[in-house]
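Entry 14. Ran structure prediction on the chain below.
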Amino acid sequence: MFLLGFPLLLIPFAIYNIIAFMMPEVRFSAELFTIPMLSKENLAVSMGDMLVIFGIMILFVEIVKATRLGSRSIVDHLLSLILFIAMLGEFMIVRQAATSTFLLLVTLSFVDVIGGFSVTIRSSQRDIALEGMRRMDQALLADRFHLVVRTEQREMALYTLLLARDDGSLG
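Output, structure tokens:
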């Protein structure tokens, strides 16, 4: 998958910065639209709300990405950590980032970093545990039944059934 090794939460971070620095007249608290509720009230949805909702959806994709093991996932976690540090620094230093919307984006980035590391560690522990169980099963077979498990590689013939005719019939 081409998205591995790229922290997707960079997208809402970039959108926030583009709006905050290039369009200073636009406010994240400005109402975009309202949703009529069954309680006869109207729910006002702001641009900041939409950006946070978008960030939450991206966070789900990031957590799913964390379940994959390999060198790319390590790079992905490292880049997510760097993004979190950059976002935290911007939140504490830059005036335009001192909003509740940006605070929620920083929180999403923190959850991405911690969740990504946690999911990866649990996934790798499961793989190690399965290998340990395989060895324990082999030891049990050897101890109780005097059976030895051996693995070998050998070449085998492989046959495939293919369509031989253009009309789709077998022949």
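The helical segments are 10-22, 47-65, 71-93, 100-145. Will compare against last week's run tomorrow.
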